[in-house]
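User: two proteins, same treatment. go.

Assistant:
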Amino acid sequence: MLSFRDFVRLGADQQYAQSNPLAAAFFRLVGPLGTHARIRNARVINTLWGMDLNGKRVLDVGCGHGYTLFWLARRFPGATLLGMDIDAAQIAGCRRATEATGVENLHFRPGVYTDLPDDAAYDLVIAIDVLEHLHEDEAMLAKIATVLRPGGTVVIHVPLRHQVQRRILPAFRAHTVHDHVRDEYLPHEIVEKVTRAGLQVDRLAYGFGWWGELGFELNNLFWQSRLLRNLTALATLPIALWAGYRDACSRLPFGNSMVLLASRPHTSGRVILSQSEIG
């Protein structure tokens, strides 16, 4: 499992993307202010735990700030990693970070999944909180199946449908994300979509249980006011980090997100988990 120190340091490479010296110093000391991205990236890293990616090609579609990619690049210097994102500013920040840190096996480029070639070139594809932003989520899953080598692995992290998420504080019971194009996913829905794309579902687990939700809500108290939210996030950061790490390293019976491990079969057979396995 990911160590607590590495959990705290997830995202610290973004210090080199900061134009404000105070912000850069903060990132250098304690990493980013938020824990939400840490939790979901740590859950993905823990899902990959035990795999040897040296000599493998890895693609992160919708990589954002590249938290998982920077960690994997250092752990597996023999791997070749590529991050793609539609946000050119985020890609520019990631490129500055790779140059400043000297990570030579990690590359970033702006783009979307439709820019990918159709050849099966990757041993591992990662998509963290991307599908809920796309109307054409099944088209992206089909493209992932195309670029994945037979026997290759895909890890997908998505939020649970917000209407059934479990919140702690009353202020968050009506919390939604404005740029989600659908009401997120139920377990059987994401499994069915991945299976229709021609991928074999191997495992589905939950993230953001009670502790992860606590870390998220502490980080986002007064979420309608940026100033108050940031001040509260700073004051509660030690508790939020501890709660987030506990969540990311726990096996949960239920949570507000899901991480799905799938693979491209060597044959055309498709497997779907039973209802008892997907919760």
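Protein 2:
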Amino acid sequence: MERPLLADVTSQRAVMSAADFDQWAQAQLDDTTYELISGETHHVPSNPYASMLAAYISFLLLSYLRDHPLGWVTGADGGFQVGEERYAPDVAFVRAERQRRPVREGYNPLPPDLAVEIISSDTAR
């Protein structure tokens, strides 16, 4: 028996629209952060080393912004809408001239000006 081609396997994956994802993500009862990439949901994995690097980068950005209030920073739990996809970068920065404050629920409707993703064996897709 032959193994299916990769194209055959990927064509059978369920694709979710951005609107369906937004409803689904809001209904999740756990603290897991999810992303929507190419219509597929992904949970955002973490590990202590990646978290440490993200915290250090956030610290450097926030230290600079303390003296230069140019915008705001989010961590890995801050999600962003980028077209029909939803991302949760490890660190993100948005200029205040584009958006004074982030939204309080759901994924921020504007993409960040800077997005930092810590790549590790857990996040390689």
